[in-house]
Amino acid sequence: MRVLGMISGTSHDGIDAALVEFTPTDGALHGAVEYTASTPYQDPLRKRLIAALPPAATSLAEMCELDTLIGQEFAAAAAAAVEAAGPVDLIVSHGQTVFHWVEGGRALGTLQIGQPAWIAERTGVPVLSDVRARDVAAGGHGAPLVSYLDGLLLAGLGGTPAALNLGGIANMTVLRGPSDLYAYDIGPANALIDAAVLAAGLNPAGYDAGGRIAASGTVDERLLAVLLDDPYYLLPAPKSTGKEHFHGDYTARAVASAGVTPTAADLVATLTELTVRTVARDVSAAGVDALVASGGGCHNPVLLDGLRAALPGVRLSTTDEFGAPADAKEAIAFALIGWCTAHGLPGTVAAGTGARGPRVLGSLTPGAGPLTLPAPLAAPPEALTLSTR
């Protein structure tokens, strides 16, 4: 079965796509990653999206228009993937998260936009979307959903390995045994850095390319102490967060509270160190001995070198070593979720999200023809291997 997974993450900079051909064999599953791509949002659309995100006020009219425009962007990315790599049996669209509703340490709702009907109409392929909502309805956080993929990929490592995704938000899956894991959102990875870069006009693309800005600055310890004092970090797992909490105004309030006036470069350096400190603290507390990273933060040497220095006894690698390109891991994870849903299998690990149990995820939008699913499978795969073609 050939499945195209697509997602725009909490960095809201564009659409990551991965086409994976899944083949089950003797209780295991092999995925051949045949295509990956990253398609940036057009600048006017990204500016509209940023302007509508919390803590800004917006309107239902703006949400309706963004839902359509982002759906059309996803449709174009899906059509490009099919044209480049051939037909697919199913498309999984995570869409774009615009709000994640968490109160009292519990997720009460989550909203992703990017109307899937545009994808189905453009490609003629059935589309699985709204993949987080069922887990939230079952008492989970709906995040991090990559924990299902992480558990299968890292199961053979032994010791206490962990998968770390450095997107807008840093999330981690820790394996305590072959079928024993937990996962949660640690805190910001690139979210605050990107907001600071964009606000200061240091890079129109809105990120610290190659960590050069952070490398030119100096960490402000007074500001860092205020940032580290956030009560979120003390909450027990499972937990989730997003840009509803960690956004540009959050940083401005922290700067005012610290009574400092950092340069733009010093601010970026401090926010980068915040990610290093919070991730390293949780990795150490979990007794992790092998850390496998993915996400856009893998391209920031200041961030990765900081983690290596803070975690001298931990082997740090990327998911590329496991057949999952670091920039495409989340898209691969959603392709896997689509394969599971199509076969009637849960795509979650309850301990990874805090739900009452694993759930079959998503809502299906038919393609051009009748909606036909494979015969359900009685049991999920016990192992997964990935290769890149």
Give the full name of the CATH homologous superfamily of the largest domain.
Answer: ATPase, nucleotide binding domain
The residue-averaged pLDDT reads 95
> Class by helix and strand content?
alpha/beta
- Helicity, as a percent range: 25-40%
Element order: H for helix, E for strand: EEEHHEEHEHHEEEHHHHHEHEHHEE
Strand percent estimate: 25-35%
Counted up, domains total 2
- Weakly predicted, low-confidence segments: none
State the CATH topology of the largest domain. Nucleotidyltransferase, domain 5
Which architecture of the largest domain does the CATH hierarchy give at level 2? Answer: 2-Layer Sandwich
**Tally of strands:** 13
The CATH class of the largest domain turns out to be: Alpha Beta
Explain what you see.
It is globular and about 60 Å long. The mean pLDDT is 95. The strands form two sheets. Strands 1, 2, 3, 4, 5, 6, 12 and 13 form an eight-stranded mixed sheet that branches. Strands 9-8-7-10-11 form a five-stranded mixed sheet. The longest helix has 26 residues, at 60-85. The protein has two domains: 2-148 and 326-388, ATPase, nucleotide binding domain (Nucleotidyltransferase, domain 5), CATH 3.30.420; 158-322, Nucleotidyltransferase, domain 5 (2-Layer Sandwich). Helix 1 packs across helix 2 (60-85), helix 6 runs antiparallel to helix 10 and helix 10 packs across helix 11. It has helices spanning 43-52, 60-85, 116-123, 133-137, 147-154, 191-199, 212-216, 221-228, 248-258, 264-285, 301-310, 329-342, 350-353, and strands spanning 2-8, 14-25, 28-40, 90-103, 106-113, 127-129, 161-166, 169-177, 180-188, 290-294, 315-318, 363-365, 383-388. With 389 residues, the protein is of the alpha/beta class. InterPro entries: Anhydro_N_Ac-Mur_kinase, ATPase_NBD. Pathway: Cell wall biogenesis; peptidoglycan recycling; Amino-sugar metabolism; 1,6-anhydro-N-acetylmuramate degradation. Belongs to the anhydro-N-acetylmuramic acid kinase family. One of its GO terms (molecular function) is phosphotransferase activity, alcohol group as acceptor. ATP binds at residues 9-16.
